[in-house]
Specification:
382 residues, mainly alpha, globular
Length: 382
């Protein structure tokens, strides 16, 4: 008796396909590695500036290298008047514009005033990568402050990258625990091999387009709710469940209805990680530490999150990804939900730029083939 033919693998979305080599990052079921260093090791022992140097320059910095790199980032934090004025104008005249769209526009405009924008040589690209890393928190902060009717603040040269991001968004110096939580979240989000936005940046770079263009494309990809926007969507989902619970229902009832109606539940599952996202537990632990020290009322979100997670494991055997605790953690810190994904950009831009440089240095245009499933050949005059 002939055995039935095996069901062909579903390769839509390039699932399971290896499409290139990289020295930057390795993602597998048990580890997430940045240039040889595992993510839990980095989250526990490194700063974001050290990780940015690791990704962009290519190696762990010495003390002197880190000092010089950090000082260079600080010197590049200011944004030009045209970028700042445009961001403020959008906030005032189109307050409902998505912050990711505003950030994309700001980066495009920054390219216009960068004298080396079109220079794809290694030294120029490293300089542009540093500039983008340094200025994105300033752009995010200017937009958020303008949305609140406040005058944007200048970057603070005495603060770390993570602390300066919070300062630019609020005009208030963050405490030690808030700075640490933000620093860890930036480390966790910095790089993740050929994900949708990084692959987008490499496709654009493969045409030998400039770094600003590639980063703008990556921002567009990250904006989507199935990618970077998942942290916003996860928090919106939890808020909906919390409203139902406080209205007399239960998380169990809400989820069972979602299962019945086949609603997509955000913050769960991952294309690569089938046994759990290594980053999720790390960020959850820091979120809980922040809540315990600074915002005890936020504990209810983590309690609800744990309940939802337990139901998802019991009913669907699906683990949370890093976007799930990210939503709760940023919410506990008082960060507006629409800014969650721009903060993701403040981190991931280091990974994108590393990949753009790698693509340019060993380039072949990315041009896959397609499997045509349209109509058969037809004569136009028939």
């Amino acid at each position: 008796m002939t055995a039935p033919a095996a069901k062909p693998a579903d390769t839509r979305g390039l699932a399971g396909q290896t499409i290139g080599d990289t020295t930057i990052c390795s993602v597998n079921q048990t580890q997430l590695i940045y240039r040889g260093y595992e993510i839990a090791d980095l989250a526990a022992n490194a700063t974001f500036e050290e990780v940015a140097h690791l990704l962009l320059v290519g190696h762990k910095p010495s003390g002197d290298e880190l000092a010089a790199f950090s000082a260079e980032l600080v010197s590049m934090r200011a944004i030009s008047d045209i970028v700042r004025d445009t961001v403020v104008k959008i906030a005032n005249e189109a307050p409902d514009a998505h912050p990711m769209s505003v950030l994309r526009t700001a980066i495009s405009m920054a390219g216009h005033v960068d004298t080396i924008c079109e220079d794809n040589t290694p030294d120029a690209e490293l300089t542009k990568a540093k500039r983008l890393t340094a200025m994105i928190p300033t752009i995010i902060g200017a937009h958020q402050m303008a949305l609140e009717g406040k005058t944007p603040v200048d970057p603070d040269p005495t603060l770390s990258h993570a602390a300066n991001l919070l300062w630019c968004m609020t005009g208030e110096k963050p405490g030690e625990i808030a700075t640490k939580v933000m620093d860890v979240s930036l480390i966790l989000y910095a790089e993740h091999d050929f994900n949708a936005s990084t692959f987008t940046s490499r496709v654009i770079a493969s045409t030998m387009a400039d770094m600003h263009s590639a980063v703008c494309g990556a921002i567009g990809a990250l904006k989507g709710p199935l990618h970077g926007g998942a942290n916003e969507a996860a928090m919106d989902m939890l808020a909906e469940i919390m409203e139902a619970v406080e209205g007399g229902s239960t998380a169990e009832a809400w989820l069972q209805d979602a299962f019945t109606t086949k609603r997509k539940l955000m913050g769960f599952g991952h294309r690569v990680y089938k046994n759990g996202d290594h980053r999720a537990g790390i960020l959850r632990d820091w979120g809980l530490k922040y809540a315990a020290q600074e915002n005890p009322a936020a504990q209810k979100w983590f309690d609800l999150g744990d309940e939802v997670q337990a139901i998802m494991m019991r009913e669907k055997n699906i683990h949370p990804n890093v976007d799930y605790p990210c939503g709760m953690t940023y919410y506990a810190m008082g960060i507006p939900v629409p800014q969650y994904t721009p903060i993701f950009v403040a981190s991931r831009v280091t990974g994108w730029c590393a990949h753009i440089m790698e693509q340019h240095q060993n380039n072949r245009i990315i041009r896959p083939l397609a499997h045509y499933t349209g109509p058969e050949l037809t004569n136009w005059n028939d």
